[in-house]
Amino acid sequence: MCLAVPGKIVSIYTSGAMRMCKIDFGGVVREACIETLPEAKVGDYTIIHAGFALNILSEEEAEATLEALRQIGAFEEEDQDLIGE
Amino acid sequence: MTSENVTMQGPVCPLPISHYDHIMLGHGSGGKMTHDLVKRLFASAFNNEALAAGDDSASLPLPAAAQLEGRLSFTTDSHIVSPLFFPGGDIGRLAVCGTVNDLCMLGAEPLYLTAGFILEEGLSIEILQRVVRAMQAAAIEAGVQIVAGDTKVVEKGKADGLFINTAGLGWIPAGRHISGSLARPGDVVLISGSLGDHGMAVLTARGELGLETGIQSDVAPLNSLIAAVLKAAPNTHVLRDPTRGGLGTTLNEIAAQSKISIWLDETAIPVSPAVRSACEMLGFDPLYVANEGKVIVILPAAEAQAGLAAMKQHPLGQSAAKIGEIKEGSAGRVQLRTAFGSTRILDMLAGEMLPRIC
Amino acid sequence: MRFTDEFRDASMVKTVLEEIRRTVTRPWVLMEICGGQTHAIMRYGLDQLLPPEVELVHGPGCPVCVTPLELIDKALAIAARPDVIFTSFGDMLRVPGSQADLFSIRARGGQVRVVYSPLDAVRIAQENPDHQVVFFAIGFETTAPANAASVIQAKALGLKNYSILASHVCVPPAMHAILGSPANRIQGFLAAGHVCSVMGTWEYPPIAAQYQVPIVVTGFEPLDLLNGILMTLRQLEAGKAGVENAYPRVVTERGNVAAQKMILQVFEPCDRQWRGIGLIPMSGLGLRAEMEEFDAEKRFSVSGIQTRESELCIAGQVLQGLKKPHHCPAFGRQCTPETPLGAPMVSSEGACSAYFRYHREEA
Predict the structure, then answer these.
(1) Hey, what CATH topology would domain B56-172 get?
(2) Which residue, A71, B131, B194, C13, shows the most beta carbons closer than 10 Å to its own?
(3) How far apart, in whole angstroms, are the C-alpha atoms of residue A77 and residue C314?
(4) How confident is the model at residue C304, as a pLDDT?
């Protein structure tokens, strides 16, 4: 486990007694269950596993993680500049 | 299509076939199970030189009395695709293009096709008419004629609507030698365009996995594209279309036939964004998904640029790319270099590809 | 694809790898306990790119691999019944039981259908009122909410022909079993990111404290995996043993509380056999008594199952990280992806299958 991919919620509705949505994964659309994400709204990103939304994806956290990773490289370059390589 | 990758070992008992005593769907996937079945059951029984070459069609000499140089290219194929109609094509177009393509993979000019139909009782005549019209349209596009046929009807439930069997005849000009066994170290591997379109289009059309995609099958006759490539690169060694089993399986066949190893650059392999997304979702590898309008070209490095340019100028080859090289050593091995510089082995598809959660 | 491609950036991967090399001063043994992470590591060849001091051991994170043999045999017996449409994730179809697998049951006439989601199985039950529809509900905590939702939906729709064959397993008890074993070599853990997106991270601090082992919640893309590995190594080098979250875009400390509640509506903790490892107490999820009507094991009395494991298969040792796949005498010979002797060779991210597919030359 666990194959889960991020996708964007494009519509929300009820079907078969469950709160469902249509998710767009980079051009591919599928139905998924968002019963456990009552606060999810159209335009949010979520992670889908076996047709079920696990959690809302935080764009801020994603950017923060990427920024922290970019800093690793940046500090190294700075150190090298200081050492005068 | 004739048998794939047969190595003859002298008299062999065709049974047992690994550990299966019934035919499984995996035997039709084009991967290892298919190869096993063909090798142990069919090829060992039919046992002749043409079959043993293991290419997409048989290259056959004419009797001396014909007094002609050059050879016949002869092939057969059966088409069982479900659903009958899918985005970008249908079973009829697939039947004509698939057979035409098998002939061209030996560098043949495709000439004549036959078409045998197994029809399920209850099939609507209107559907049959659509299929037949699509076949004629594809035949005109490819410049071939459908010159013989047969029709049988089976009881309801026995044929999934419609099965088509085709045979194809083509002419290989004298002096042209193209075969899966001719790849040589130093050769370059080209692909004519993006991978996985056909397989994902059909899977989407089946509807079982609930996907909505805009993916269209790439099914198309490749003879004019190949003619352009061969004009620019007359010393091309190998042509093969990566149909069922995908690029990965097909390159494994070639590597085994030619007894060389193939190295691929993963970042160079073209895959459309929608196919990539659909594969990510289901846990599929686009390198194993079927294509019906793409060709792998393996040619000497000296002619690679010309061959690639010729493809890119053709409507069916605009996304063509160089994806790898042929090397000595590790005969039969196909390896991929990732974007990060690591390498992994690309094996043949084992059985069916199934959506996974892990 | 957004939120995916950025985490596969080759130049950033290179930078993080360099940082990992700068960080390690001595050998360390890390374990990841998620089949999806094993698959990603193999697919991108990350283990080749790590410095030799870092040993990655692939733990029992593949629910397909650890589903008990007896349950597979029960699944096969149920699937063979003419009144049953047996539905399953694709992963399970080639897992060998004692005699057969779901593929061969299908070949012999059993109705076996692959579904992408358990909710699709419920729809099949609605569309086939004259058949019993059984869903093979395997998985870790990641899959439990979806499987639970299918039962809740079936109940709400009043379906009498839907049931599940449940074999859920939970990560924390497995970590206890591994870390608590006298043969344990694992010094740092990558926690499974998608399990944690459901369950949160609150279960891990007691484990980290008890065994003094750093645990870093890690994602699945190359950058996520390397970031998780880097954070674990930094802790190890500093002598720390805490819980950190390297996948905060999807994982929070509490997790998805509504999903956790949904799981407990349908399931409750129970003892579970892990194929190749043995019984781990309270490591599974089984149907609650009030959901008994959806329990396929009770609905179909399947008796007389005689399980028979291959004698050659060392899956248990591989799953616990005590042996590598290519140490097994049957690896690549009697045991291959087409002729698997044990479960880790079947699932595409079982340790043995991943090794076979991607790294055979080391064998």
Answers:
(1) 60s Ribosomal Protein L30; Chain: A; (3.30.1330)
(2) C13
(3) 47
(4) 64
